[in-house]
Backbone:
């Protein structure tokens, strides 16, 4: 590899990793928003995945593929357990309940000796790389595109537009809701495992309310018409703070300003278009 | 004719200016990197540190720079207190700016994230304000000039034991913050070692504002003192709560590094009186080097320096000395030179241990809060 490319990749490595990891998180938000649910538990699922994977790597020394599977399975299980009671809620009540879940988990991490309490876990080896992170993101994107062109995708869109009508037309609402939550938890858990294995250090406060809101903003800025919208949101929100670095003290001001302008003038997100369906006629 | 003469006279002058400029040009600056919190809620720490660096930098460059007359320069990167941004900043300083050494980052959490990056690329990284346990265990390229809590807190507790005859205490700590938790771990060990009895250990969250439940329980146990590991806001709340509950005046609060801030006295007012903290340095320290630093700092920034500025000030001289001793701006040589450097600055004599922590703890002073000012206690 030429020296300049090597230096470039070194300088921006964690930024490029964040693009992929945040992309997975944005998709995990997209799954629930796509059926019209406002669930803010993604940060909590990400934390579960991160801690599960870090503990398996540090304490058990498990091979990385198994670590990744566990990092998806544990949040999925948690989603199944908490899904039953919380999915009876909707709208802002579901958002509140899932924020609560995040807080409960954060406090559990803080008070557990196993997870290192407030000090978190450090010295996690760097095991994730470009291939696995962006491979996962690409796979997830392809899967979502295929799903949104299928019967399931149409049912999801119907639920988002009008749940009652969708239910009357025979869409199995509870099943779709719990499936969306489980898929969302798995993607967030996977992102958490990657995050832990590229930044070498995790602590409970990384997965709190701030993270939940950031993940939501990826999806809202990009638009939820198609799975590509949230990923575009990620690219912008992740790169902006670094691109604006030369502005020094003013960078946070400009960062905020650009987001406000984007939301004001493009309320449906930057990519509002939907995926065309095979056989669909307007 | 006259015109011609003046033009002729000006010629050598111009030439001499030109050659001086050329000389300065040939002396390429040695640029080191610094990652500090320059924006966001915790920027008061980062800015104090930057001020300390800049003041020392002026002095280093006025006295001929480093490596035989090359000016020293610092490339600052902002971390905004966020560990991901600290990693990005470290990677850019190493990969693009090619700095041979990094100062910072400000918080221990940021060091746990950025330290491994520098260590992997074999670039020395020197924390000036990272006091948590395990910082230098990251790797052989991670140094710190700040005294860890493990060095300061035992001195504070020992002084309190000797001067006040403290035998039994209550402990309170914030359990959701890395800094206050690691402070507590140190306190626990030090109390055991000194043979001081711990009556109870109470926890709180760093954003809590009401501590009456914990303090009521503590009051009923009648301790000689309350040992507290908290940040400014929670610590001030505890002091106010303690006063409101009418604790006897002789029951002092003994704090960790988190309470070592004038802000505590601003918030808690006279409820802060008698609070003891240990510090590597304080503004009223009677020492000629220290007084000179305080005067220079006040003249440049129009405010009083704190311990973070003092630690940063000393660190820059230590680093400049290491670069000179290394004889080249090369990371590996600087790393070796840092390990051997001996320097006496505003905080007292300084050298690194084999584990790259500060070797000397003789500079620690125990100070007492009194009517809005710190004063020396021991």
Residues:
């Amino acid at each position: 590899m030429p020296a300049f490319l090597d230096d470039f990749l070194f300088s921006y490595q964690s930024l490029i990793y964040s693009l992929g990891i945040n992309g997975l998180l944005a998709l995990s938000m997209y799954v629930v928003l796509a059926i019209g649910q406002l669930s803010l538990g993604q940060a909590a699922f990400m934390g579960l995945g991160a801690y599960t994977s870090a503990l398996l790597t540090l304490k058990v020394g498990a091979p990385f593929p198994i670590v990744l599977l566990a990092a998806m399975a544990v949040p999925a299980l948690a989603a199944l357990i908490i899904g039953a009671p919380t999915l009876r809620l909707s709208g802002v009540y579901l958002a509140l309940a899932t924020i609560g879940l995040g807080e409960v988990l954060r406090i559990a991490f803080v008070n557990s000796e196993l997870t290192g309490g407030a000090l978190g876990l450090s010295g996690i080896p760097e095991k994730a790389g470009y291939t696995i992170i962006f491979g996962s993101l690409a796979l997830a994107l392809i899967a979502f595109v295929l799903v949104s062109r299928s019967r399931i995708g149409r049912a999801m869109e119907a639920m988002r537009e009008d749940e009652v009508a969708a239910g009357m037309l025979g869409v199995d609402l509870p099943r779709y809701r719990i499936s969306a939550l489980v898929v969302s938890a798995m993607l967030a858990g996977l992102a958490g495992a990657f995050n832990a294995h590229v930044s070498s250090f995790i602590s409970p406060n990384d997965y709190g309310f701030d993270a939940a809101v950031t993940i939501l903003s990826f999806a809202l800025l990009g638009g939820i018409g198609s799975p590509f919208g949230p990923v575009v949101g990620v690219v912008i929100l992740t790169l902006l703070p670094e691109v604006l670095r030369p502005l020094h003290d003013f960078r946070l001001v400009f960062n905020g300003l650009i987001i406000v302008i984007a939301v004001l003038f493009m309320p449906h997100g930057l990519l509002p278009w939907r995926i065309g369906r095979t056989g669909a006629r307007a | 004719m006259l015109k011609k003469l003046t033009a002729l006279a000006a010629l050598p002058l111009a030439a001499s200016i030109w050659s001086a400029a050329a000389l300065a040009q040939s002396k390429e600056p040695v640029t080191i990197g610094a990652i500090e919190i320059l924006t966001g809620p915790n920027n008061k720490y980062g800015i104090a540190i930057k001020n300390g660096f800049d003041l020392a930098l002026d002095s280093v460059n006025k006295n001929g720079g480093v490596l035989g007359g090359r000016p020293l320069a610092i490339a600052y990167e902002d971390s905004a207190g966020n560990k991901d941004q600290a990693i990005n900043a470290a990677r850019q300083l190493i990969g693009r700016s090619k700095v041979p050494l990094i100062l910072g980052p400000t918080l221990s959490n940021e060091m746990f994230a950025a330290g491994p990056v520098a260590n992997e690329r074999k670039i020395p990284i020197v924390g000036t304000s990272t006091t948590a346990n395990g910082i230098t265990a990251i790797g052989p390229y991670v140094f710190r000039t700040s005294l860890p809590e493990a060095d300061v807190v035992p001195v504070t507790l020992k002084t309190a034991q000797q001067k006040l005859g403290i035998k039994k205490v209550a402990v309170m700590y914030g359990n959701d913050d890395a800094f206050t938790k690691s402070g507590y771990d140190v306190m626990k060990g030090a109390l055991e070692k000194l043979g001081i009895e711990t009556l109870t250990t109470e926890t709180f969250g760093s954003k809590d504002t009401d501590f009456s439940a914990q303090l009521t329980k503590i009051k009923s146990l009648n301790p000689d003192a309350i040992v507290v590991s908290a940040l400014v806001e929670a610590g001030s709340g505890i002091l106010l709560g303690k006063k409101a509950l009418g604790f006897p005046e002789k029951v002092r609060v003994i704090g960790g590094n988190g309470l070592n801030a004038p802000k505590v006295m601003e918030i808690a007012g006279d409820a802060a009186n008698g609070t003891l903290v240990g510090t590597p340095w304080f503004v009223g320290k009677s020492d000629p080097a220290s007084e000179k630093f305080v005067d220079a700092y006040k003249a440049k920034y129009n405010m009083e320096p704190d311990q973070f500025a003092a630690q940063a000030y000393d660190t820059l001289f230590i680093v400049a000395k290491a670069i000179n001793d290394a004889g080249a701006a090369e990371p590996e040589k600087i790393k070796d030179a840092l390990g051997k450097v001996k320097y006496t600055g505003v905080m007292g004599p300084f050298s690194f241990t084999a584990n790259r922590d500060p070797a000397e703890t003789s500079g620690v002073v125990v100070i007492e809060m009194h009517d809005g000012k710190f004063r020396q206690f021991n």
Remarks:
- Chain A touches chain B at residues 7-8, 10-15, 18, 106-107, 110-111, 117-120, 122-123, 199-201, 203-206, 241-242, 245, 248-249, 251-252 (CB under 8 Å).
- Chain A has a mean pLDDT of 89.
- Residues 13-207 of chain A form one domain.
- Residues 3-34 of chain A form the longest helix (32 residues).
